[in-house]
Amino acid sequence: MSQPTLTLLREGPLVRVTMARPESRNAFNPAMIAELTQAFTDLTAAATEDDPSGEGPRVVLLSGEGRVFSAGADLEWMRSMAGYALEDNLADAMRLAALFRAIRDCPLPVLARVQGAAMGGGSGLVAACDIAVAAEGAVFAFSEARLGIVPAVISPFVLPKIGSGAARELFLTGERFDARRALAIGLINRVVPESELDAAIAERLSALLAAAPGAQSAIKRLIPYVASEGDSPASRAFTARLIADRRASREGQEGMAAFLERRPPSWAASEGSA
């Protein structure tokens, strides 16, 4: 039986999902793709949108064991794919796309802790997360063009973060870029010295736990919808209905009551648990 490729740890409202192939620089192979997809599918199923008690999972931390976040695709896996038929390559690509969608579409906020490197599909994992904090020494690359392939599967997740201008340069060159460039183009949200990485992660987790989980889930639906529809009649109807629903929800009622009564809302009781 093969060894698990990741570890899952529940700490109160926090779920730690850690890629656990440090000997391979957390490069992903079919087993890791399947396990990560299943982990985020299960987290989606476990999330309860209108839960003022805050007893369910609230936030996910995606990280990589060892010195590197993820080197992207495993070399042995890539070598084996050279002999795949077109249909097998297509099925393989669809499974990888399903992984990125499972992360992006998870109703819980997903925070990435990035150290060492996030190469190729590793940068795609970062892009699929909601927030990413990186150590100053981290390097990134959309290196596919230098291998004679293209960053096709990750592009729907990367382009909304970095835009087509940065993508044209970085996709076409395949060159490495540092954490400061990643911050400037929007791939990541914070850069800190490596010695301060865990403290910065803890601060972001605390900030996420101060917000209402149901509202966060709704926001994760809101952003891509409005980005796609703009200020259209459909968008206006969607946003009006969304705020009306949230005002009437148990969580919305609790949040307003807590504000008026000058007390923390019920979900904030878990804030210090991470």
Note down, in words, how this protein is organized.
- The chain is α/β, with parallel strands linked by helices and 274 residues long.
- The chain has 2 domains: 6-207, 2-enoyl-CoA Hydratase, Chain A, domain 1; 212-273, Lyase 2-enoyl-coa Hydratase, Chain  A, domain 2 (Orthogonal Bundle), CATH 1.10.12.
- Helices cover 49% and strands 15% of the residues.
- The protein has helices at residues 30-46, 75-81, 86-104, 121-128, 155-173, 179-185, 197-209, 213-229, 233-248, 250-260; strands at residues 6-11, 14-19, 59-64, 110-114, 117-119, 131-135, 139-141, 176-178, 190-192.
- The model is unreliable at 270-274 (pLDDT under 50).
Distance between the termini: 33 Å
CATH topology name of the largest domain:
2-enoyl-CoA Hydratase, Chain A, domain 1
H/E series: EEHEHHEEHEEHEHEHHHH
CATH superfamily of the largest domain: 2-enoyl-CoA Hydratase, Chain A, domain 1
Cross-sheet strand order for the largest sheet: 1-2-3-4-6-9
Q: Could you tell me the radius of gyration in angstroms?
A: 19 Å
- What shape does the CA trace take? globular
- What is the count of DSSP helices, taking H or I runs of 4+ residues? 10
Which band does the percent of strand residues land in?
Answer: 5-15%
User: What's the average pLDDT?
Assistant: 93
Give the number of domains. Answer: 2
Query: What kind of assembly state do the chains in view correspond to?
Result: single chain
Structural class of the secondary structure composition? alpha/beta
